[in-house]
Amino acid sequence: MADTEAGGVTKSDEPDDTSTQRARQADRHVGARIRERRLMLGLSQQQLASMIGVTYQQAHKYERGLNRISAGRLFEIAVVLAVPVSWFFEGLQESGESQPLGMRQRMCLELARNFAQITNEKHQEALSQMARALAAQSQGRPVD
């Protein structure tokens, strides 16, 4: 488009495809991190939605990166999920691409979620001791 003196739109006023694509990738990354943290805490989408004062559908759209999250809403989500706002951006590359969750990371998330649901402290301690022993054995260290 041509620049006009009457306040017309110039080409530089329009977002380019690269920046739009990076923004969408960032929205998807933040949504995936929200979902990751929600699952770590064992919350349903409905529970999260209720806690942040939106509908289930809106929470779903946030997690999928279909709807942008305002700064204020992201702050509220961070408070509810007990993480700093910066946590949602961890793993986001400058190109706007996120690093995919590997199988190991998924297992760690599932392990953390399941561990948090164990109400018996003795069972939690036994599981923790077993994990320490297996880790020490894997690294060739003596068990503490």
UniProtKB/TrEMBL annotation:
A Pfam match: HTH_3
Domain of life (superkingdom): Bacteria
SMART domains to which the protein is assigned, alphabetical: HTH_XRE
Domain HTH cro/C1-type: 34-88
Transmembrane feature ranges: none
InterPro entries: Cro/C1-type_HTH, Lambda_DNA-bd_dom_sf
Region of interest: Disordered: 1-29
Protein name, entry field: Helix-turn-helix domain-containing protein
